[in-house]
Write a structure and sequence with these properties.
single chain; mainly alpha; globular
C-alpha cells in the first residue's frame, strides 16, 4: 500500500457518520418546511392506508387492477417512510448526523422501492392493456395466480440492483468532508464525497437507470399505444369514454412519477444548483406520493363508491 492509499484508507475509517445538510441554509424557513412536509407526509400515510383498507374490505374491488393499486399504495408508504421521518427530525434538530450504516440502508431502500414502483406501474399498464385490447381473455390472462407472480417479481427484481448500487458506493474510499448536501442519502450527493475515480460506478449507474427505470417506462408507452389504438377503433362514444376513464388515473400518476424524477436524474449535472435539486426532490419524495391517493379516489368512480360504502358501514355500526 502506497503512502497515499494508506492515508485514504485511514480517512475512510475515520468517517463513521455523515451530516445531512438538508435545508440548513434556509434557517428562517425551517418551521414552515417542517409543517408543510409533516402535513403532506400524514396525508400520504392516511390516504394510502385508506386505499389499502378499502380495496381489502370491499368485494367490488377484488380485481387485478385494485390488487395492483393496493400494492402501489404500500410501496408509496414505504418509499416515504425511508426518507421523510429523518428529514422531519433534521428540520427540528441541530444535530443532522446519520450513521454510515443508516445512510447505506436509506440509499438501498430508496433504490429498492423506487425500482419496485417503476415495474409495478408497468404491470398496471399491462393490466389495462389486456382489459381493453383483449377483454374476452382478461380473466384468463390476468387470473389471481398470474397477478401474484407479477407482484412477487416486482418486489424481487429490485433487490440485486439496489444492493449493487448501495454496496458499491459505500465500499469506495471517503476522504475529507462528510457533509452530504441533501436531505437524504441520495447517490449523486454521497458520490461527491468519494475521493477516487467514480467513472465505473457512474457507467454502471447509467446502465442500471436505463434497465430498471426506462425499460418499464418503454413498456408503459407501448401498452398505451396499443390501448389508444384500440379505443379509437371503438364504435361507441360511451365505450371510448369508459375505457379512457379507467386509464386516466394511472396515466396521471405515471406522468407525475417519471416527470418529477427525470427533472432531477436525467438533466445535466450543471443544470440546477444543489438547492434547486433539493426542492425538486421534495416533489417526488413528498408531494407526488400524497397526490396519488387523491388522484385515484377522485377520478375513479369505483373507488369513490367503495369509500362511501365503507364509511357508511362504519357510521351505521357506530350508531
Amino acid at each position: 500500500m502506497t503512502p497515499t492509499e494508506e492515508a485514504q484508507w485511514r480517512n475512510q475509517t475515520l468517517i463513521t457518520e455523515f451530516i445531512l445538510l438538508g435545508f440548513s441554509n434556509l434557517l428562517h424557513l425551517q418551521g414552515l418546511l417542517f409543517c408543510m412536509v409533516l402535513f403532506m407526509y400524514m396525508g400520504t400515510v392516511m390516504g394510502h392506508t385508506l386505499i389499502i383498507l378499502v380495496v381489502t374490505v370491499d368485494p367490488a374491488l377484488h380485481s387485478p387492477m385494485y390488487f395492483f393499486l393496493k400494492n402501489l399504495a404500500f410501496i408509496e408508504i414505504c418509499f416515504t417512510l425511508d426518507t421523510v421521518p429523518k428529514m422531519l427530525v433534521n428540520l427540528l434538530k441541530e444535530d443532522k448526523s446519520i450513521s454510515f450504516a443508516a445512510c447505506a440502508l436509506q440509499m438501498y431502500f430508496f433504490f429498492f422501492f423506487g425500482c419496485a414502483e417503476c415495474f409495478l406501474l408497468a404491470a398496471m399498464a399491462y393490466d389495462r392493456y389486456v382489459a381493453i385490447c383483449y377483454p374476452l381473455r382478461y380473466n384468463t390472462l390476468m387470473n389471481q395466480p398470474v397477478c401474484r407472480k407479477i407482484v412477487g417479481g416486482v418486489w424481487v427484481i429490485g433487490v440485486p440492483v439496489s444492493l449493487l448500487q448501495a454496496a458499491w458506493i459505500f465500499n469506495l474510499p471517503f476522504c475529507g468532508s462528510n457533509q452530504v448536501n441533501h436531505f437524504f442519502c441520495d447517490a449523486p450527493a454521497v458520490l461527491k464525497l468519494v475521493c477516487t475515480d467514480t467513472y465505473l460506478y457512474e457507467m454502471q449507474a447509467v446502465g442500471s437507470t436505463l434497465l430498471f427505470l426506462m425499460f418499464p417506462f418503454v413498456l408503459i408507452l407501448v401498452s398505451y399505444v396499443h390501448i389508444l389504438t384500440t379505443i379509437l377503433r371503438m364504435p361507441s362514444a360511451e365505450g371510448r369514454h369508459k375505457a379512457f376513464s379507467t386509464c386516466s388515473s394511472h396515466l396521471i400518476v405515471v406522468t407525475l412519477f417519471y416527470g418529477s424524477g427525470s427533472l432531477v436524474y436525467l438533466r445535466p449535472k450543471s443544470s440546477y444548483s444543489p438547492d434547486v435539486k433539493k426542492l425538486l426532490s421534495l416533489f417526488y419524495t413528498v408531494l407526488t406520493p400524497m397526490l396519488n391517493p387523491i388522484i385515484y379516489s377522485l377520478r375513479n368512480n369505483e373507488v369513490k363508491g367503495a369509500l362511501k360504502r365503507v364509511i357508511g358501514r362504519k357510521l351505521f355500526l357506530q350508531n
